[in-house]
Amino acid sequence: MITRFIDLLIAGLMGLNGLLRRAFTESVIKFKATYGGPHVINPVLTAKEIKPHWFDALILKAKERKKPVKFARCPGMFDYMQEGFIIRAHTDIHIKANSVGVAVTLGQTLDPVLAVVEMDTEVVEGIAPIDGVKFKVIKVSLPYAVIAEPGHSVHLLPPLMHSPELMDKLFIYPGTVDYEDFHTVNLIFTVIRPCEFTIKAGTPILHALPFKRVSYHGVCGEGTHWEKTKHKNGFPSRVMGYYRRKFHFKKVYTSEVQK
Q1: Is-contact 237 231, C-beta < 8 A?
Q2: What SS3 class is residue 78?
Q3: Any domain includes 23
Q4: Is the pLDDT of residue 186 over 80?
């Protein structure tokens, strides 16, 4: 009984803390088009606004079965799909690759600065699982300046949830960038198998997750008596879906498209 009361008290305090944090700490990150007008046709939007094809298919199947979408019951994966922002291709990117070489062409080059560039392969040698194709590292500069507030950075990640069909052809290199005074964003990838296809304009190509920089100290060791008891017998651990209903914080990302 005491354990349950403590669990509920902690949940209430965490909920209040989340409300206060959201009310007073909203931050702004800007994706400003500095070449052409991609923000008009294919703007950077919140990840929540861009529904992946596979998720739409899940919704249709759920309606046919007259059952809820079970994917939403896993808050960890569901949150990841909706967190942050999605940077989309500003133009068609045609890729042809085989054992002889790799050719990447853009449907439209807004400026010579945005031309396709081959990077030094030694920088990332051994990372991408290449099979049957010449090893190349391709950089496509994107027409956006990313501007973050002081103390904030951005994880630039492959669009695992939003463009999973790209993952069996490309290894998109992730990165973490401090965007206070540096503002360039690039799509950097290696083709991992022979293929020929086109990434259509508007296709999600990067998942941008902004975060505030803080210092962390990790501790790994044996749990205390209280930590073991709470983990094994605590109320949230014993009731299915309790985390999703009581301990899960809503993450808020919004967007606007300026002219």
Answers
A1: yes
A2: helix
A3: no
A4: yes
